[in-house]
Amino acid sequence: MILLIIQRLRRIGLRRSASNVPALWRLGAGILALSLLSGCTFISDPVSRMKTPRLSEDKATLMTAINSLKLVRPTNDDDSSIRTEDLNGDGTPETLVFYETPGEAVQIHGLILEKQGDAWIKKLTFDGAGTVLESVEIRDVTGDGKPEIIAGYSRGDEGLQKGLVVYSYSGSSLEEKLTLSYTKYVIDDLNGDGMDDITVVSLKRNESSTLTTYQYNGGFKELDRLENLDPYINNYYNIFVGKVAKGKEGIVLDAAVNSHSAYSYVIVMENNRFRVVLSGDDRTFKDSRIPSGDIDGDGIIEIGLMERPLGWENFEADSVPWFYSYYKWDGKEGLDFAFQQYRDPSDRFTLNFPPAWHGRVTVDKKSVQNQYLKFIMSDTGETVAEISFFSAEEWDLVKDDGWDLWGRDADKIIGYRGKLEQNADGIKKGTNTAPAERKGIN
Q1: What is the pLDDT of residues 195-242, one digit of tens each?
Q2: pLDDT digits (tens, 9 = 90+) for 311-357
């Protein structure tokens, strides 16, 4: 009987990944204890027979070709420093990597390798235009069916302009199709003609601020340029492209006025020309840098604003548990409410309210940030949610009193209690409930 168990355990040990080692140890220890009681002995256990998974042969040869390099990831992408794609349309994949040589005059370099037989062969290297690799994208922006390399570089100083370069690889050489300075950029089909274009916002603080869309037509040409944006801002901290209203494609620019406050522009393109529909006035002003985006997942971009909960009008701003309210451009000159949430100032969790609660849900005035928050309906006084920070000793006393463990932060345990139900998709179910999200709590 024990021999059969050993054989099964060996098969499990060889199949399972290293992440299951603790479970295997526990199972092995139990069998070992049983064997000692029965007088049996083991020569070896399955854990000792487990081997580190080997890289695929293709990836192993690639790593051999680049293992002497200090690879760098772009700051906008934490996923990978290695990109493999057919860059010149010949049916053979190429691999693109960027690496750095600190201390040298040119510190960022690109390398293209080509798969030939069972090996990866270095085809060419090229120098980057800065000390920091900001972004890398591989997309067809010339319409020839072959992808280009779009790379952003900087000197690592927020106050300086960044450099954007569009490269085209032929198989034996690399051509720079477009080189320009930028603060933020997006790639999208802004004018709806079926071909991707590149839109760049460029800020020279206190001098000029422009928005320009470039499209390829025998070379990159300006589709349109907007020059009357406000240059007296700190920076653009976010740019988002997509539908800004039903049937309307556009761009939302979030501009930081100073270290805290901000406002947003909404700009559409009609007949290949820009039109500013919201120009960064009081309608979009906010006391915090809230990034715009499709927050509720309906395909239309929302602009985030800060709102005081009812009853908190006379409190100092630092003590207010602010609500983040998101609005959509109404297609004319105003904004329509879409969605509201409470967001923890340290970004540890959010509490999302059903739209029907707007103007009704508030926070009890006895609530204190980082201690206890009580969310109530202003018209009935009904408590709909509570968030509290407990010591370990306090948690042991209350954990069976309807509190859900949301995580730990420093020496505190964060607990939630309320009428919230949420399925795996984060979609509200039942009645009188609001989806919630926990963030970054270990």
Answers
A1: 999 999 999 999 999 999 999 999 999 999 999 899 999 999 999 999
A2: 999 999 999 999 999 999 999 989 999 999 999 998 888 899 999 99
Instruction: Look at residues 56, 141, 68, 65 and name the one whose alpha carbon lies nearest to residue 96.
Output: 65
**CB contact at 8 A, 254 and 237:** yes
| pLDDT band, residue 64 (cuts 50/70/90) | confident
Beta bridge partners of 412: 409
- On the question of pLDDT at 433 being above 60, the answer is no
- Shortest CA distance to 371 belongs to which of 394, 340, 402, 401? 394
Please count the other Cβ atoms lying within 10 Å of the Cβ belonging to residue 1: 7
CA 220 to each of CA 176, 188, 223, 301: distance values in angstroms, whole numbers, following the listed order: 11, 15, 9, 28
Whole-number Å distance between alpha carbons of 308 and 321 = 7
| 262 Cβ neighbours under 8 A, 6+ residues apart | 237, 254, 255, 256, 285, 286, 288, 289, 290
* N-terminal to C-terminal alpha carbon distance within the chain: 43
- Beta pairing partners, 212: 200, 225
Asked whether the predicted pLDDT for residue 376 surpasses 50, the reply is yes
